[in-house]
UniProtKB/TrEMBL annotation:
<protein>
    <recommendedName>
        <fullName>Formate hydrogenlyase maturation protein HycH</fullName>
    </recommendedName>
</protein>
<dbReference type="Pfam" id="PF07450">
    <property type="entry name" value="HycH"/>
</dbReference>
<dbReference type="InterPro" id="IPR010005">
    <property type="entry name" value="Formate_DH_maturation_HycH"/>
</dbReference>
<feature type="compositionally biased region" description="Low complexity">
    <location>
        <begin position="9"/>
        <end position="19"/>
    </location>
</feature>
<feature type="region of interest" description="Disordered">
    <location>
        <begin position="1"/>
        <end position="40"/>
    </location>
</feature>
Amino acid sequence: MSVTVRQRPSAPGAGRAPGADGGTGAERGRAVRPAAAHTTDGRTARDVVFYRLGKKFVDHERSIPEDVRSVLYYTLAIGHHTGVIDCLEPRLATSRVVFSDVLAALGAGEAADKLRGIERFGEIELKKEHVPLLKPAVLAALEGCGTVPEPGTAAAGLVVAADVPSWLEEFLFLLDEVQCEPAVYAMGRRVS
């Protein structure tokens, strides 16, 4: 898995959001732990990671024990997708300190409340219907940081954002991926 670490250079004289520098130097320099070592415990979690749906696959019938097949058929009949497994890949990570600064940069409102669900519940899901709520708030926060989003394509693999503007830019790319591709969603988690 490729990992890209991003930090925006400070523009001279640009207005910065509180904490937009990404916290202490120690916080900025610390890399996020490997994505496989994650739990959502609020006391020990140090990072926030957003995962993107990478692929889905179906667990074939032959691997389902005979005694639970009737349960599987029932759940499929009522609309549950038992046996379909979503493979989520880490896409955007940062420290909880930077994520807290992101929430402050977003200010009060529904967008910040949606993302604040990570701190409250340990994880959130972002679907297409959340993009119109989040995208304008992220663009406004970038403007408040004195940053203009750079046109381009999202980095392949995991991006570790070391500051608020880098996180906001990469999050915009993630929102575009969710909005433009069918059946794609993202999940944000508080992780240790």
